[in-house]
Amino acid sequence: MENIQTSRRDFLKTTGLTSFGLALGISAFSKDAVVKKINPAILKLEINPFIIIDTAGNITIVNPRPDMGQGSTQAVPSLLAEELEVRLDQVKIIQSDGKDKYGSQTSGGSSSVRSLWEPIRKAGAAARDMLTETAAKRWNVPVAECIAKDGTIIHKPTGKSLAYGELADDASKLEIPKNPKLKDPKDFTILGKYNKRLDVPERVTGKAIYGIDIDIPGMVYASILHSPMLHGKVIAVDDTETKKVKGVIKVIKTERTMPHRTSEAVAVIGTNYWAALKGRKALAVKWDNADYEKTLSTEKYFTDTYEAAKKEGINFEEKGDFDAKYSSAAKKLESNYETPFLAHAPIEPENAVVHVKDDGSIEIWAPVQGPDWALRDVCAYMKVAPEKVKINVTLLGGAFGRKAYHDFLLEACHLSKELKKPVKVVWTREDDISQGPYRPGMLSHMQGFIQDGKIVGYHHHAIGESILGQVYKGLKPDEADPWLSEEISTNNNKYSFDVASKVSWTHVKTDIPVVWWRSVYASNFGWGQECFIDELAHLAGKDPLKARLEIIKDERFRKVLETLAEKSAWGEKLAEGQGKGIAVFKSFDSISATCITVTKKDSGVKIDKVVSIIDCGYYVNPDNVKAQTEGNIVMGITAATKDGITFTNGVCDQSNFHQYNIMRLNEMPEIEIHIVDSGSSPGGVGEPGLPPIAPALGNAIFAATGKRMRKLPFDITNLKV
Amino acid sequence: MAIYNLTVNSKKVKVDVEDDMPLLWVVRDIVGLKGTKFGCGMALCGACTVHLDGQPARSCQTPVSSIGKITKITTIEGIGDVKLHAIQQAWIEEQVPQCGYCQSGQIMSAVALLKTNANPNDQDIDAAMSGNLCRCGTYDRIRKAIHRAAETIKVEEKGIGKR
């Protein structure tokens, strides 16, 4: 019992609650989102303390989705507040710590609202019903005469009221309603409405705490020299100059552990970060680079992908006998579309603070996208049980997929264990850009044909490195990467081709580390798919919008395209030198379409305007949907027109923002975003706006200049085909 | 190592650091003000922007020894510490930040712009703000927020003038 009491006290202390009152959890592993009561006395053994209403009326929700700018700290409490009938400012948020009981906790795959839409609302509705019933009993009145509003239950006929805190203890003794009634969306007061994000003020005053801002007593700082060829081994370290730097405490050989391999590295430990960094720059390390000088080469990789394009891949799907129909087709096209490797480059570089304590327990403060995955990786790496690890998730200064890859966190674990001190590891921008992991560069080999002015044959052959294969469970030689098929299948793009279609895959491996990047493969393959459909439309002599509508029956796609046509004034006369291009792509259960207008300027073009449409089904905050789509426009234009990542002779050619440029404010075109309210179940918001950007731009450039861009990135001021 | 007497956000602080330590790390790790951010270390991203006697400067490329006769160092914590600055208020109204990490630097650049140009047009905003990167892509809102803040200041000043 003592242990239970201690854990209960500790929990109350860390959460700042006065008592448990009513605590409800949602079964993380049940598809039916079963709401459960949490017995505080056995909290340690219970699952999912998601919502707690204490006797003082404090309402706390454990947020299982870290905030990296996508707005989960508003979205998650909004789902609760809507059904519980409280204001957003009445809900306190605690970030989950990765433990199993909180279920899936990774911000990724644009999944937060999609996966929590029903479970959290259900828990909120259950709590509301229990509180209402408690009040009705206490007043001895029918439940139907009571309503919940702003954290109180009001007896309508008399106007008397009880605050949730006064009811919480008694409410906790009731059975949980099995199927609490969820509100009809037309009665929503928070969901789907404009609400200011409550965490914006701390982000404009410098008060928001990101991983890099964590200070722990006794902490030392580490800057780590990684192998310039990523996987080299340390032969010799000359730290003579490093040791002369004031504030340098120690130089130690260390390691960088990626999900699939471990590389050697040298860490400089300092009393402050500048000392560690200066000391690191003074190191002279001799590396054994094996044959990475040859294997780490983007030129070689892409040569391999173009070779693969000449051969048969493994089919995801085939309708009709595509090859036979293609070879006999009279009007056909074949093109290759290339996308580069890209760094995520969040403005907050990778960092972590870790304290491996004397008793073997580990405390972590880090900007990680998923504390659950981080916990799994730390436990496996440090060979400790999850109970020994406490993860404090900080705000993330951008992530875009990068901070769900925990090499930087494991580095801090390793160093803290070696040094027996809390250690803060901070990567430099150069580490971030030149070490990876990256979005893989990919090739789309496209074939298609038309008959009677209609696109009737289509083949998308996706070629390149597999994230699943390199980083996770591996990929069998005869297996087509299932992650891609979701995105480029005809079931996803909803194009129906009357004669034949095929979607296939060839795995080309590389030693360059890869991982997901905003919208994952959709960011690669939207380019090939949507530019090629445009090419086929022109071959058919058709307007690109009409050609698409001819082969899409799906109502949601059609509505998105029609809205785009209306909002972008598609078909209206353009000025001299102007061109418009469109593209549509579905990812993460949302459909997004974009129209870009460009004007010819010298040997390039200027982007005049971007109009994006998104149908993401039900959403939490229209302003956040727009904000995320704005971000996708900027990141999409950057990916298309700024720098890719290249490796030459084993070394990354880019190191900082002068070689890996990000779009700047002065380059911002006019933008316009419209939401299609389809009332469908919620789709993703953080990523779906990105895939159509590059192809809409490529298609606009063709319309304005006649130049068909097939390789990303390109210099928009000097277009070369 | 040398002793430097600095005035940060109107407070006098004495630091004992290496001459070449950039002001960024002095402010963050020695003075303990974490609002100023590290982004690139090469003055390419603007996340570390502070004001030196009112002028915007990239603190990652400002060795503490170069501070010399600078009398006032202002960081994000020194902007609107009593009442939010019109720029900060406009940032809230326009819901500018996403992750928010670059916004300290963005705001420092914007505050400096309005100080010298109370009524900036789009070209002025381009010139003043293009050194600040935002990976989340909040540029359109930044532009709107600067116009909004300029309007607010104009209205407030008119109000004062009337009195």
Description:
The complex is a heterodimer of chains A (721) and B (163). Chain A has 21 helices and 28 strands. In chain A, strands 11-12-9-19-16-17-18 form a 7-stranded mixed sheet, with helices on both faces. In chain A, β7 and β8 (161-163) form a beta hairpin. Residues 1-16 and 40-48 of chain A have low confidence and may be disordered. Chain B has 163 residues and is of the alpha+beta class. Helices cover 39% and strands 15% of the residues of chain B. Chain B is built from 5 helices and 5 strands; from the N terminus they run ββαβββαααα. In chain B, the strands form 2 sheets. Chain B has a 3-stranded antiparallel sheet, covered by helices on one side. In chain B, β1 and β2 form a beta hairpin. The longest helix of chain B has 24 residues, at 139-162. Chain B is globular and about 50 Å long. In chain B, 55% of the residues are buried. The mean pLDDT of chain B is 95.
Summarize, please:
Chain A has 721 residues and is of the alpha+beta class. Chain A has 21 helices and 28 strands. Chain A is globular and about 80 Å long.
CATH architecture of the largest domain in chain A: 2-Layer Sandwich
Q: Would you count the extended β strands of chain B for me?
A: 5
For the termini of chain A, the CA-CA separation is 74 Å
Largest protein interface?
Answer: A-B, 63 and 61 residues
- Range of strand content of chain A: 15-25%
Structural class of the secondary structure composition of chain A?
A: alpha+beta
**SS elements, strand count of chain A:** 28
Oligomer class: heterodimer
- How many structural domains of chain A? 3
Give the DSSP E fraction of chain B (strand runs of 2 or more residues): 5-15%
Please, what is the average pLDDT of chain B? Answer: 95
Unreliable sequence segments of chain B: none
Biggest sheet strand line-up of chain A:
11-12-9-19-16-17-18
Mean pLDDT of chain A: 93
The tally of domains of chain B stands at 2
Question: Which series of helices and strands of chain B comes N to C?
Answer: EEHEEEHHHH
